[in-house]
Amino acid sequence: MWRWYLIGLVSVIVCGVAVAFFSLDPSTYSDSGATDMRGQSEVSIVLTDAGFRPERVIVDVDTTLIFTTTRDKPFWPGSNPHPSHTLYPELDPKDAIPANASWIFVAEQPGVWGYHDHIRSYFTGVVIVK
């Protein structure tokens, strides 16, 4: 009896790890639905009560991303995964940004970069750098 319990527990853990791994895998993101902002030297990404806007954006290499918020709370944009920000470590101001301030980041690495608000990790976005 305990073997079936153990097998079930191991199966749940393996499935959970697989889901977490693949949900953070940048290759799972596509350009579909992304706002194409290529050709612009600066792009504003605003954290609103509904999340980051635009939520998914395509930019050129060396585009300056300006993160701000319309919320009256500090925010902290950081690359996935939460909480370590290791997918693109430079995409992390290393501290919270006051609500009335902005954080400027230059997207220098081509790729698909998921990010989130480190304080409220349910706010997410994707920057696709081409």
What features would you describe in this structure?
The protein is an alpha/beta fold and 130 residues long. The protein has one domain (30-129): Cupredoxins -  blue copper proteins (Immunoglobulin-like), CATH 2.60.40. Helix content is 18%, strand content 34%. It has a five-stranded mixed beta sheet, with no helix packed on it. It is globular, with a radius of gyration of 17 Å.
Total individual domains: 1
User: Which series of helices and strands comes N to C?
Assistant: HEEEEEEEEE
How big a fraction of the residues is strand?
25-35%
Low-confidence sequence ranges = 14-25
Form type: globular
Kindly report the spatial arrangement of strands forming the biggest sheet: 1-4-9-8-6
Number of strands: 9
CATH superfamily: Cupredoxins -  blue copper proteins
| CATH topology-level fold name | Immunoglobulin-like
Level-1 CATH class name: Mainly Beta
Salient structural properties:
130 residues, Immunoglobulin-like
Give a topology summary.
Elements (H helix, E strand, L loop, with lengths): L1 H23 L10 E2 L5 E7 L2 E3 L2 E4 L3 E7 L7 E3 L23 E5 L3 E7 L6 E6 L1
Concise account of the structure shown:
This protein is of the alpha/beta class and 130 residues long. Helices cover 18% and strands 34% of the residues.
